[in-house]
Amino acid sequence: MKILIGTDGSDFSRAAAEECCKFIADPSNVEIKILSAFEDTYAIAAEPFAISSEYYQELANAVEKQAQNFVADTAKIIREKLKSDSLRISAEVVRGAPDRELVEIAESWGADLIVVGSHGRGFWGRLLGSVSDGVVHHAPCSVLVVRGEKMPARPVAPTG
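The structure corresponding to this sequence follows.
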């Protein structure tokens, strides 16, 4: 089985990696790819706030380094949870919209399952769009969306 795990370094992503491990009975029959995608920053060309292109390059490098740390941390979580010598894990950091990249890589790699965390943004997150929502609607395979901690109960508006 091929499992693609998306991570953005959040607690929700860590919860997704941990939950995924609960479903793996035989690590020798599983191949895991961990993916972190980041979007480019675009230059602001309006005066007087123009920022040098070197600054944007440094920012892009820092974001890419951070994404590399996210995949390394996720791999560590999985290795600690599964404790198997036969575990096959690869990691990839790509530029692009995370939902689109997860779907495209799942399709080209032949993933059987995509695992992502849910940020639990509720109505506004769904209205504005979310990575998990985009993956669920466009994935070529099954998707496991893991909610981290339980969301607090919504207050009930008084009636009358």
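The mean pLDDT is 84.
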